[in-house]
Design a protein that fits this description.
Helix content is about 25%, strand content about 25%. The longest helix has 18 residues. The protein starts with a strand and ends in a 24-residue tail after the last strand.
């Protein structure tokens, strides 16, 4: 099967030109100003459109147990939503159950995806138990299996949170094995005290989710993780940065040339604390962690992604129904499942309010949504760019098509949308995964099972093309 994409404006992290892209099998085999002599089975006219690399989302949670329930999106529904939003690869989190080995946890998560994959995916390993479950030796073996990043929670005391010894020992293993350490940076001990005090005072509404997780707790934990990683000699990636207090220590570390990177998520650029104050429990829709911050932080974050203090924008897609799951915390904000949707609308929102608003360039958008996530997580140049030899993960994007984001029209199983009613210009029109048409004319054009597990390279290494 061969496909010729003609006359599109090809955008990568470094390039911006009009040309043709020729796909044979699952790879890009030719790129040129005009490939008129090439014969293809299918031709896609991309005149007046952008041709982008398939987006890479490095931070998602599909089919994940949390807070006495399970995220509403499984691998199939979550990845369908991703495909319609121009995301063709993501890295999901394996959450090690207490007492379980890492091998058992990885097998469980692979089993959840079997036969359901619509796009390509990899896994991070979330380390929760080094005493009764996995061992340091087993942890060290994961990069040989293509799992080249370890995630640690410094929050959620009594559930996912690890102590500093576990954090530091994991960092030491990562330094030895070439893995990247990811941290959810909040001071879980302090937050636990604040939550108990709020509940004892009868403060149960959703807004107290934010008021008991002040930005200082995120800033302190971010700095602590950076310093511990420095001692261990590990490379560090701080997930879902939400506020100036956390941006600052990352900026200092990067100015010093330390191996520290950070991401923010789409929602932190748009949703602020006041959303949590909405009446009739609607504020629960915006209960995720870290919480929405004061609006002043949004321009801090935009500046950080523009200047590469933060190097990626993910979604942290962790979808729970407002009616039936979030309502578990109707009378106690601490029982509201933490998480929000976002897989489908990241490209829409960043194109509209980043590129069209003049905050970032098209090249920087591709860098933030495609290239940097691929480089940081061992997927580049197989993923994250448009180059000869790379996977033919491609998005033909119509930059002029206007539409309104509506929960009723998205492909997640969630019953609301964080960006409900937002007017945007620009949308994916055709999406290819390894040369297979995934989305075309507003419909899913491929069946679940087409997606693959990708064994990722170690941090800093490149990933060669796969075999068909």
């Amino acid at each position: 099967m061969s496909i010729l994409i003609k006359g599109g404006r090809i955008i990568t992290a470094a390039d911006d030109y009009v040309g043709d892209v020729y796909v044979e099998g699952e790879r890009i085999t030719l790129i040129g100003a005009s490939l008129d002599d090439v014969q293809a089975d299918t031709t896609i006219d991309a005149s007046g459109k952008y041709v982008l690399p398939g987006c890479v989302d490095p931070h998602t949670h599909l089919d994940m147990p949390f807070g006495g329930t399970v995220t509403i999106d499984d691998v199939e529904s979550g990845q369908i939503a991703a495909a319609f939003g121009g995301t063709t690869c993501h890295v999901d989190f394996v959450i090690q159950p207490q007492g379980a080995t890492f091998a058992a946890a990885l097998d469980e998560w692979k089993g959840k995806a079997a036969g359901k994959q619509v796009i390509d995916m990899g896994y991070h390993m979330a380390v929760t138990d080094l005493r009764e479950g996995g061992t340091l030796e087993e942890l060290a073996s994961l990069p040989d299996q293509g799992v080249t990043s370890y995630k640690l929670f410094m929050a959620y005391k009594g559930a996912l949170m690890v102590d500093d010894e576990t954090l530091f020992r994991t960092m030491q293993v990562a330094a030895e094995t070439g893995a990247l350490v990811m941290v959810h940076a909040e001071n879980g001990d302090a937050i636990d005290v604040l939550v108990k005090e709020a509940l004892a005072a009868g403060n149960t509404e959703p807004k107290y989710h934010a008021l008991t997780r002040p930005p200082e707790t995120e800033g302190e934990a971010t700095n602590r993780a950076i310093q511990l990683a420095r001692v261990a000699g590990a490379s560090l990636y701080v997930v879902h940065v939400s506020c100036e207090e956390a941006v600052h220590p990352i900026a200092v570390a990067r100015e010093k040339g330390w191996d520290v990177w950070g991401e923010t998520c789409t929602q932190y650029l748009f949703v602020d604390y006041t959303f949590l104050e909405r009446p009739d429990f609607e504020g629960a829709k915006y209960v995720y962690t870290p919480p929405p911050r004061d609006k002043a932080n949004q321009e801090v974050l935009w500046n950080a992604v523009r200047t590469d203090v933060l190097s990626a924008i993910s979604t942290d897609h962790c979808a729970f129904l407002w009616d039936g799951q979030k309502t578990l915390g109707k009378d106690d904000f601490s029982k509201i499942p933490n998480g929000g949707p976002g897989l489908e609308n990241r490209l829409h929102m960043i194109h509209e309010f980043g590129v069209r608003a003049g905050r970032i360039t098209l090249n920087r958008m591709v860098e933030l949504l495609c290239t940097n996530p691929a480089k940081l997580f061992g997927l580049y140049p197989r993923k994250g760019t448009i180059a000869v030899g790379s996977d033919a993960d491609l998005v033909v994007f119509d930059p002029e098509r206007r539409h309104t984001i509506k929960a009723s029209e998205h492909h997640s199983k969630i019953d609301y949308n964080l960006y409900e009613g937002t007017e945007v210009t620009g949308t994916p029109e055709t999406v290819l995964l390894r040369g297979h048409v995934l989305v075309e004319d507003g419909r899913l054009a491929a069946k679940p099972g087409i997606g693959q597990f990708v064994e990722r390279a170690r941090f800093g290494d490149t990933l060669a093309p796969g075999t068909e």
